[in-house]
Amino acid sequence: MRILRLTIRNAFRHRLRSVLTIAGIAIAVTAFGFLRTVVTAWYSGVEASSANRLITRQAISFIFPLPYADKEQIARLPNVRSVSWANWFGGVYKDKSQFFARMAVDGDTYFDVYPEFQIEPDQLAQFKRERNACIVGADLAQQYGFKLGDIIPLDGDIYPGHWEFVVRGIYRPRDKTIDGTQMLFHWDYLNERIRQESPGRADEVGWYIVKIDDPARSAEVSDHIDALFANSRAETKTETERAFQQGFAQSGNVIIGGINFISFVIVGIIMLVLGNTMIMSARERTREYAVFKTLGFSAKYIATMIFGESLVLSIFGAAFGVPLTIGLVKMFEQFVPKAWFPVFYVEPVTYVLAATAALLVGVAAALFPMQRAMRTPIVEGLRFIG
Amino acid sequence: MQPLIRIEGVSKAYRRDSFDIPVLNKLTLDVAEGEFLALMGPSGSGKTTLLNLVAGIDRPNQGRITVGDTDIAALSETALAKWRATHVGFIFQFYNLIPVLTAYENVELPLLLTPLSKAERRKHVELALGVVGLSDRIYHYPKQLSGGQEQRVAIARAIATDPTLLVADEPTGDLDKQSAEEILTLLDRLNKEFKKTIVMVTHDPRAAERAHTVRHLDKGELI
């Protein structure tokens, strides 16, 4: 009990220095937590992907379409439960800065293959009945104040012209890891208009979503699908949804890798800040430690005091840093359009990592001063003039 | 009469870089139980080194030091630390109190190493602070005390475990004349009333006058 009290008093003996050290640790923990959140947000699509969904796209590039007719052949393959499809629509809502995902999907099957987009049955039925209906995510609806019956006007770029869609449903993401910022409308509606205005581009889909019976057979089914269209004018590349999402995520790999690296550099910086404080504190108390030893206290007792002091500072730093991370992430969410980072929240593992990093830093920062204090002979310590 | 401290042929040298600096040279000395011994001599004569060896905070390169029945040079570090906690009280020139602890807590420090209960420790601390006349300052921090009072707290800490031997290194070296007199009177009382054996290093002839015996050291030898 006495050693704990002494440790806490020692930790705050130089209040300004301790406060600055704790602030340094707290800021570093916050930066670490925030950057880790950016990294996890970037890979959220990968994490949210389903094991029993495959994505079939054009083998040359994702931007080239596939024939609509492929659907029937894919659906006939063994182990394929259902096939859905989608097109990236793009377009502009109000102005180019108002970005969110707009996709033409097969209204009959899309919400079956994506059960994580939860929608009321009556809204889904209404959507299916109306050709120019759309469904928006709850986060998107909240951001723009969309309500059922509202009309969303879009100016097309990939598919030119003025487009209007009526909001007939609002889907809720099943959990925090699911994107709630998408706008989905009927592929049939898009295709009919394209057939009239640009017949050469009709009956094309962006990619197929293939739901399979058994995730263990994903490689086998992928091979079967790609074999079907080998040597055709639109060869396919089929992969698991996870691999497909990873392909997207990899486009920012260098930047995200850099962010990831910096988040760990920050841990090193915390260690230097705390290590510097602990070395200074232990050096200033060289004589005191010698007095403790003179009175009969063991070197282990001295080491425990230094270790405890370092831990006290790191625990305080983590205790302030973790709530700061939550605050910063919430602030970021308010100021940055939701569609830029549809899934942006502090994962529980980030709290654990940040707190663990702070504690490990507390341990590491104490090692050198502990060793020094234990090894310094009493006589030398008593002669020390700080 | 059997001496409390027996120093036989003790030599000590310190190594600085590649040089061996001899400090004590085959020194032999007996200190009787209940003695009040003052060690005097010029700077660098080896007084403090001798005191450190007797107190078990340093080890001789050669020779034997026996305190009571214990050959302290033969003890392991852990055993020596335990021995110091039980048998020796230390009084330093600069008091060396722990600034974040009150007078009470400073005096209680050596008692934390004993099996005494909290209540028993309290009794010891209050008795020790009573002996040095600081019963009314037990919750004061060192910075709230004068130099003389700090030294009295240090003396209370030294006697709290009721050790056999008190070692004092220039106990009045940092004090004004009046405070120095008070400390010397206190040491005198501890020697006469509480039968403590005291070994004191001092430059101050007035301090040495209070001792029963004064021994002079020069270049590591008793003269």
In short:
The complex is a heterodimer of chains A (386) and B (223). Chain A has 386 residues and is α+β, with helices and mostly antiparallel strands. Chain A has helices at 2-11, 15-42, 44-48, 70-75, 110-113, 121-129, 138-144, 187-197, 218-228, 241-249, 253-284, 286-294, 299-335, 348-375, 378-383; strands spanning 53-58, 66-67, 80-88, 102-105, 117-118, 133-137, 151-156, 161-173, 183-186, 204-205, 207-212, 236-240.
Distance between the ends of chain B: 23 Å
Corresponding CATH architecture of chain B: 3-Layer(aba) Sandwich
CATH C-level category of chain B: Alpha Beta
Provide the number of structural domains of chain A: 2
Note the beta-strand portion of chain A: 15-25%
Number of domains of chain B: 1
CATH superfamily of chain B: P-loop containing nucleotide triphosphate hydrolases
Largest interface: A-B, 20 and 25 residues
Strand content of chain B: 25-35%
Cα(first) to Cα(last) distance of chain A is 28 Å
Query: How much helix, percentage-wise, in residues of chain A?
Result: 40-55%
How are helices and strands ordered from N to C of chain A? HHHEEHEEHEHEHEEEHEEHEHHHHHH
Comma- or semicolon-separated keywords:
heterodimer, A: 386 residues, alpha+beta, two-stranded antiparallel sheet, 15 helices, 17% strand, elongated, B: alpha/beta, Rossmann fold, 6-stranded mixed sheet, 34% helix, globular
List the helices and strands and how they pair.
The complex is a heterodimer of chains A (386) and B (223).
Chain A lengths: L1 H10 L3 H28 L1 H5 L4 E6 L7 E2 L2 H6 L4 E9 L13 E4 L4 H4 L3 E2 L2 H9 L3 E5 H7 L6 E6 L4 E13 L9 E4 H11 L6 E2 L1 E6 L5 H11 L7 E5 H9 L3 H32 L1 H9 L4 H37 L12 H28 L2 H6 L3
Parallel strand pairs in A: 4-9, 6-8
Antiparallel strand pairs in A: 1-11, 1-12, 2-10, 3-4, 3-11, 5-8, 6-9, 7-8
Helix pairs in contact in A: 1-13, 2-11, 2-13, 2-14, 11-13, 11-14, 13-14
Chain B lengths: L2 E14 L2 E14 L3 E5 L6 H9 L6 E6 L2 E2 L5 H11 E4 L11 H6 L9 H14 L15 H13 L5 E5 L7 H16 L4 E5 L3 H6 L2 E6 L2 E2 L1
Helix pairs in contact in B: 4-5, 5-6
